[in-house]
Amino acid sequence: MMISLALLLFPLFHATSQEEIVQIVNNVKGGLWKAKVYNKTEFDVEAAMMHMDSTILSEEPVFSSPLQSTPEVFDARERWPEFQVPIQMQAACNGCWAFATTASMTYRLGVAGCYKGLISPQDLLSCDKTNKACQGGNPLRAMLFAANNGIASDDCVPFVSEFGRVPLCPSKCKNGSAIERYKYKTPFQVGVSDVQTLLMESGPLYARFNVYADFLNYEDGIYEHVTGRQLGSHAVLLLGWGVEKGVDYWLLQNSYSEEWGEKGYFRMRRGSNQCGMENAFYGGIVDCNAL
Q1: Distance (Å, whole) CA 148 – CA 140
Q2: pLDDT-based confidence at residue 15 (cuts at 50, 70, 90)
Q3: Looking at the chain, which terminus has fewer C-beta neighbours within 10 angstroms, N or C?
Q4: What is the pTM of this model?
Q5: Dist CA 236 CA 12 (whole Å)
Q6: CATH code, domain carrying 19
Q7: Distances (CA, A) of 286 to 2, 147, 183, 269
Q8: DSSP symbol at 53
Q9: Which residue in 258, 281, 259, 257 sits closest to 268, CA to CA?
């Protein structure tokens, strides 16, 4: 197993301030990514630290058999540009679980042939009482809610919980029209050996990983943990994968706004269960006839 130079250089020291983190990350010789100090108008690092899920994933290596037929690079935005989900901003709401669930559902409905526009994270936040709204959520419970109850479109129920306040489950769309909610047929968790094939066949997936303080200062490149304490876990959208200068990566979409990272996207080192991500991919099967 390849051991990161960054981890060899900084195995124990945990920086505490943005400035310390950026200095350490950007001075790693041969480092894979760059960090920056964000001001609050770009991205509020301190607020993000306070809005993490408490679940921690195992970071032990995960066995993955090689897939001979898998392309070296895959990007759902290029494969299905007509279903592309805009970069969203969860702000002071720990609702990443809802953003990841609905972004995946948006794509997967489209790939199945029954695109309904952007699916609403707000409707899920307000209506799914098996989860904790802006206080965190579980991916399989969210997927099961989508299967049993359905979720409205974002045009019908737009996001309003950027300050953490979650309104009651709506009975009508914002414009007063009747709500139509769209369902998954079957929710699932998928192993890392199958995730690439499933993504190529039926669309992007919910991904979850442990967050360390340095991740919040990510600017560009292929992320791997260098320094900073563990803060909790976070949910994002898995869009694909690739290789850069011999390093495999996952391609992901965040809900931290376009001011963060690679215009709202980021890449994470693939193949070593970085931050536990390769333990945690989720999605739902779509049956357009059953919506």
Answers
A1: 12
A2: low
A3: N
A4: 0.93
A5: 27
A6: 3.90.70.10
A7: 38, 9, 8, 30
A8: B
A9: 281
Which residue has 């990443």 as its token pair? 96
- Band (pLDDT 50/70/90 cuts) for residue 64 is confident
**Residue that has been written with the tokens 């901003």 in this structure:** 89
Single-letter residue type at 175? N
244 residue type, one letter: E
Q: Which amino acid is at 158?
A: P
The span from the CA of 14 to the CA of 35, in Å, is 15
Domain that holds residue 90: 5-290
Q: For the chain, what is the domain count?
A: 1
Q: How far is CA 177 from CA 48, 102, 123, 173, 270, in A?
A: 35, 21, 15, 5, 45
CA–CA dist 54, 169 (Å, integer): 25
Q: Which residues participate in catalysis according to the annotation?
A: 96, 234, 254
116 and 182 Cβ atoms separated by less than 8 Å: yes
Phi, psi (rounded to 5 degrees) for 44? -90, 95
The CA-atom distances, in angstroms, between 8 and each of 28, 31, 219 are: 10, 12, 22
